Amino acid sequence: MKAKVASLKAEDAVKIQLMRPGMWVDIQADTPTATKRARTDLIGIDQQKNVFIVRMPDESKYGNLRDAIYATNDVIMRLILEDETGDVVAFKSVIRSVMAQPFNYVVVDFPELMQSQSLRSEDRSRITLPVQVSIDGVEGESFSGHIVDISANGCRLAVPAEQKMAVMKNRQSIAMRVKQADNKMVTLRGVVKNLKQAPLQHFYGVKFDEENQDALKAIWLPLALKS
Fold this sequence. Notes:
Number of domains: 2
Number of strands: 13
Largest sheet: 6 strands, antiparallel, barrel
Helix content: 10-25%
CATH superfamily of the largest domain: Electron Transport, Fmn-binding Protein, Chain A
Number of helices: 3
Shape: elongated
CATH architecture of the largest domain: Roll
Radius of gyration: 21 Å
Distance between the termini: 42 Å
CATH topology of the largest domain: Pnp Oxidase, Chain A
Strand order of the largest sheet: 1-2-3-6-5-4
């Protein structure tokens, strides 16, 4: 039976957008007598057909899987969005088809619901905070983006994909300028630790420099008063 993708929550749709080819996938399915579980990788996502495409797990490593991985059987998939949100994402869905040619791929419907659990040792506050970003040592104008979550030690920065000049690299030092309600500018400095490119936005994990405490207090106090 096909999953009812129309009921997918907005936050789950965002998680799907953050999934990337090459991510490890844990896939679990039942046979009449046992549960089989194997590790494979994500090949891609077809958002028009509402399906995930994963590689058929290596049967030389996991043994015969054809009695568990077949069209119409239920499947549980788990992925780690470690660089993006720090979440383990798990969901139950249905195998739509198993391809043998030209490659051994498994096609899985989008689920109705996803569950997630954070792997991070500290909580991050989900926000939408406009910033102007500049890259140390790179001449040119600053570009706009949004901090989408923040903690005492770092943040996740989203930059519209159409800003071609805004593509940053790992280990680059950056400055993010935030306008306060009184029009004063506060600057957060940090280093890019990871990056992921989505169709509409690029996401950057940024680790803050140690001297950001005063700037963080200036940003967090107004946010706390609004909550």
